[in-house]
């Protein structure tokens, strides 16, 4: 209990001689150093606010403007056209010379601020131009060339992470007629002629009556809100869901495919935690370069980065709430049914990787058993949300339970030290990859804290991975974090020859703090676990590394790799099920402020025509395939530029619910839900010298009970990794049918 005594800054006892005050100088020193670190962070944030507040100008440009104005005054010129003289009349306590200087500085400051506002307005106008995305390579218009030059001129200064935020345009509300027209086009290949005729009539009635009324409310919201979609999307798609977020919402990310940097579990945890803390420091200091559209300087919204760390989803009866804290100096760790608080800062400094490894090893060596009810406590976050909300209010709002729960929820992130081995290993590597995916998606249903923004999993053999909660951000934000973590772990921090972290250890570090619980039997942990276990047992996952070719060979055909894969998935589904289905592909809308995602309905008339022609052996397959590819690219670009279908219909649907009227839209199931995990930082991975350091990407559960969830990552030039999920309870979907993807890729390529 030594560490418990050290945590007390002072103690006192009452004696006959009076009060005996005992100070713990070590604890006071820790408080002092923690305060210094906190004030350094506040100063850094204040400095960053100034720098990004004047972007694309710089704070030093103020001095240039003041100097220029003063020079013109002393040369008997008046660039202010009399304004400086008027400002002088406001100063009565200064001499003539002082009044002139102060007035000139006031005018210079106002002029400088006006120029900044003008530059930011110009940058916002430039970033609102999206026609460049629809122009063919090598056929760029003069307008786009001038636009690109102006954007580069206004982006010459190195931006901070959030420098572009106020310059990003707002997401526009598309005309309702355009959205409904594209909606009819998207459902045409899925309906018979009578069904399509009826849908057309319903759409026409909706537009002329209810639709225009709902549109007016939506336009009013767009004038008031920063983004007319994102808050409702977060609230109604994620936070109001009452079913388990495990499998249904959370997703996972995997380690390297062929390489495990160290087999020492504690060492891998030490470097992984350190890399994550280094990334957090970059976020705090805004040192991360803002994301851009690949191959351009066009910035993407960085708002999702604000809640990566120190964030937890708090359950509620009707809706959950995302709780974010400004800082946290510890992480929560789970091992064999016990929970620990691990301080990652000590004496005002971040622990070294070797010290974190030392602390993790202490947890692994701790022989103490779980307290009653503690070992399966995490199942509460894996089951239905209403029971978890009720249990939390009843048993975790006071006493030791509240303190321990606060330690988990306020932690920077959650770490699970798994007692299993995972990865592509053994006699059946493909089967073990599937087991690895399932482990990251749901684990044992109680050894992850699914409410945390993300949980890191470190396996017994040194393999790692993560499980991420979905409401606070989308996969590209987490993927960027994970790329940095893997690269920093393997190429920058590194390990000793024995597989341990580098650095020295201060053996006086206090033991990791064991969290104390008092969990009554009526806390419904068992019932939540039963719900979660049934859901986990029903999920089938298959990881499919495709090594025959990659984007290099596809690009030689002058075809978009994403379009190529999406059309191939249509072919695979057609061969598997004998028809087509409404297909969801996630696209980002981060060209706009606070943008999240939009749907690309990748089952099109053109892709269906190609699949039917290929299956019937017709000769015009190549031409049809190119038409389908061009169509898909155009749909993807429209989704990125705010002209998608589904988010607009979703918001119209929400408005209709607020008004108490019924809408027949957005009720169709997505039987094929797909998403690409983009590689955003290829410069971190030297695949030429280290070809084995290939990321597996990540995946998610099926969106529909009778559908597939397909995630894919294009790695380098010669590999594509697929993650396919489905449910055993549906006889029509079996993820092992993902072998069709291999066949369809070969068949699609054969005509070329």
TrEMBL record:
GO molecular function terms attached to this record: carnitine O-palmitoyltransferase activity
Subcellular location: Mitochondrion outer membrane
All copies of domain Choline/carnitine acyltransferase, residue ranges: 171-736
Pathway annotation from the record: Lipid metabolism; fatty acid beta-oxidation
Any single Gene Ontology cellular-component annotation: mitochondrial outer membrane
InterPro entries to which the protein is assigned, alphabetical: Carn_acyl_trans, CAT-like_dom_sf, Cho/carn_acyl_trans, Cho/carn_acyl_trans_2, CPT_N
A biological-process GO annotation: fatty acid beta-oxidation
Annotated active site: 470 (proton acceptor)
Membrane topology: Multi-pass membrane protein
Pfam families, per database record: Carn_acyltransf, CPT_N
EC number assigned by the record: 2.3.1.21
Keywords tagged on the record: Acyltransferase, Fatty acid metabolism, Lipid metabolism, Membrane, Mitochondrion, Transferase, Transmembrane, Transmembrane helix, Transport
Transmembrane region(s): 50-74, 101-123
Catalysed transformations (reactions): (R)-carnitine + hexadecanoyl-CoA = O-hexadecanoyl-(R)-carnitine + CoA
Carnitine O-palmitoyltransferase N-terminal domain segment(s): 1-47
Family of the protein in this entry: Belongs to the carnitine/choline acetyltransferase family.
The protein's name in its UniProt record: carnitine O-palmitoyltransferase
Taxonomic lineage: Eukaryota, Metazoa, Chordata, Craniata, Vertebrata
């Amino acid at each position: 209990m030594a560490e418990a005594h050290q945590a007390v800054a002072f103690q006192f006892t009452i004696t006959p001689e009076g009060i005996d005050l005992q100070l713990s100088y070590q604890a006071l020193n820790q408080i002092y150093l923690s305060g210094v670190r906190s004030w350094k962070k506040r100063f850094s944030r204040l400095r960053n606010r100034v720098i990004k507040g004047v972007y694309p100008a710089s704070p030093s440009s103020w001095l240039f403007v003041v100097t220029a104005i003063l020079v013109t005054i002393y040369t008997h010129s008046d660039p202010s056209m009399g304004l400086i003289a008027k400002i002088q009349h406001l100063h009565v306590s200064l001499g003539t010379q002082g009044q002139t200087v102060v007035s000139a500085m006031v005018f210079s400051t106002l002029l400088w601020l006006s120029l900044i506002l003008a530059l930011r307005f110009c940058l916002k106008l430039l970033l609102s131009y999206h026609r460049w995305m629809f122009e063919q390579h090598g056929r760029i218009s003069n307008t786009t060339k001038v636009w690109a030059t102006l954007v580069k001129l206004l982006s010459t200064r190195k931006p901070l992470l959030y420098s572009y935020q106020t310059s990003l345009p707002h997401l526009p509300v598309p005309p309702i007629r355009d959205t409904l027209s594209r909606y009819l086009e998207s459902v045409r290949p899925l309906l018979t002629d009578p069904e399509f005729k009826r849908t057309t009539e319903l759409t026409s009635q909706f537009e002329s009556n209810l639709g225009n009324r709902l549109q007016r409310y939506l336009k009013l919201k767009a004038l008031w809100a920063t983004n007319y979609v994102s808050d409702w999307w977060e609230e109604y798609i994620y936070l109001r869901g009452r079913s388990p977020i495990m499998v249904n919402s959370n997703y996972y990310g995997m380690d390297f495919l062929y390489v495990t940097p160290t087999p020492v579990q504690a060492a891998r945890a030490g470097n992984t935690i350190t890399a994550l803390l280094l990334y957090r420091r970059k976020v705090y200091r805004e040192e991360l370069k803002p994301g851009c559209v690949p191959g351009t300087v066009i910035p993407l919204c960085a708002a999702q980065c604000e809640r990566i760390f120190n964030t937890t989803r708090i359950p509620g009866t009707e809706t959950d709430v995302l709780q974010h804290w400004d800082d946290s100096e510890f992480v929560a760790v789970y091992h064999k049914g016990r929970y620990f608080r691990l301080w990652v800062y000590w004496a005002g400094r971040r622990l070294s990787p070797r010290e974190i490894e030392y602390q993790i090893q202490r947890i692994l060596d701790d022989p103490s058993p779980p307290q009653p009810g503690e070992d399966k406590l995490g199942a509460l976050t894996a089951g239905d949300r209403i029971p978890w909300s009720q249990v939390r209010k009843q048993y975790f709002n006071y006493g030791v339970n509240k303190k321990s729960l606060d330690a988990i929820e306020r932690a920077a992130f959650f770490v699970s030290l798994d007692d299993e081995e995972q990865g592509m290993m053994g006699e059946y590597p493909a089967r073990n990859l599937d087991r690895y995916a399932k482990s990251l998606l749901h684990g044992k249903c109680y050894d992850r804290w699914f409410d945390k923004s993300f949980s890191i999993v470190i396996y017994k053999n040194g393999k790692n991975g993560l499980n991420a909660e979905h409401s606070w951000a989308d996969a590209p934000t987490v993927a960027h974090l994970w790329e940095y973590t893997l690269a920093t772990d393997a190429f920058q921090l590194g390990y000793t020859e024995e597989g341990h972290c580098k650095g020295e250890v201060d053996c006086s570090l206090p033991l990791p703090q064991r969290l104390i619980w008092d969990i009554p039997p009526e806390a419904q942990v068992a019932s939540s676990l039963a719900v979660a276990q049934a859901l986990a047992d029903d999920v089938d996952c298959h990881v499919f590394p495709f090594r025959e070719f990659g984007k290099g060979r596809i690009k030689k055909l002058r075809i978009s790799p994403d379009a190529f894969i999406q059309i191939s998935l249509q072919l695979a589904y057609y061969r598997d099920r004998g028809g087509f289905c409404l297909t969801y592909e996630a696209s980002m809308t981060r060209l706009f402020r606070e943008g999240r995602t939009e749907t690309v309905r990748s089952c099109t008339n053109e892709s269906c025509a190609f699949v039917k022609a290929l299956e019937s052996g017709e000769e015009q397959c190549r031409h049809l395939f190119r038409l389908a590819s061009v169509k898909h690219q155009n749909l993807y670009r429209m989704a990125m530029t705010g002209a998608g279908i589904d988010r607009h219909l979703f918001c119209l649907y929400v408005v209709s619910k607020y008004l108490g009227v019924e809408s027949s839209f957005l009720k169709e199931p997505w039987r094929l839900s797909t998403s690409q995990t983009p590689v955003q930082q290829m410069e971190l991975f030297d695949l030429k010298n280290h070809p084995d350091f290939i990321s597996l990407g990540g995946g998610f559960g099926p969106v529909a009970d009778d559908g597939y969830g397909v995630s894919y990552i294009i790695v380098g030039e010669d590999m594509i990794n697929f993650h396919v999920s489905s449910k055993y309870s549906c006889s029509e979907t079996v993820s092992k049918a993902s072998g069709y993807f291999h066949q369809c890729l070969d068949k699609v390529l054969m005509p070329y």
